[in-house]
Amino acid sequence: MRELVSGDTILGFTSSGCTANQVVTQIEVTIQPSLQVIAGAKQVVCSTSHLFMTSHADSIKAEELTLGTKILDDQGGHVEVSQVVELGLRPVVNLVCEPDHTYSANGVLHHNKVSIISGELEL
């Protein structure tokens, strides 16, 4: 996969749950406390403050996830969190997209900023 750049279009979702294109407006790499979140067959490495969608109107910070928390996947269903592992400080890629701030990465829905370890982002 080529590297994302500002202005790229990615798969997103509106607040009503319909698919829609989102435009990447900001990309930054920072070093932050990170977690590995496993939910079903999905895996995301993210910052502790990263937001996962629990419904098309609600989100939860990664650091607040507990075993059994259900997060939205990119097929409109839910996957259950089965493991959360602290990884310490790691470089993460933060994306901001417009207009709806909700999009798919690594098979689950994210809100506004996705903080995924460099090189492990699948859109």
- What is the level 1 CATH name? Mainly Beta
Counting structural domains, the number is 1
**What does the largest sheet look like?**
6 strands, antiparallel
Strand content: over 45%
Given as residue ranges, the uncertain stretches (5+ residues, pLDDT < 50) are 114-123
User: What is the average of the pLDDT values?
Assistant: 81
Principal-axes geometry comes out as globular
Q: Any idea what the CATH architecture is?
A: Beta Complex
Report on the architecture of this protein.
With 123 residues, the chain is mostly beta strands. The protein has a single domain (9-117), classed as Hedgehog/Intein (Hint) domain (Endonuclease - Pi-scei, Chain A, domain 1, Beta Complex). Helices cover 0% and strands 61% of the residues. Strand 2 (19-39) and strand 3 (42-47) form a beta hairpin. It is globular, with a radius of gyration of 13 Å. The model is unreliable at 114-123 (pLDDT under 50).
Write the layout of secondary structure elements.
Layout: E1 9-13, E2 19-39, E3 42-47, E4 51-53, E5 59-61, E6 70-72, E7 78-98, E8 102-105, E9 108-111, E10 113-117
Antiparallel strand pairs: 1-2, 2-3, 2-7, 4-5, 6-7, 7-10, 8-9
Compact overview of the structure:
This protein has no helices and ten strands. The protein has 123 residues and is mostly beta strands.
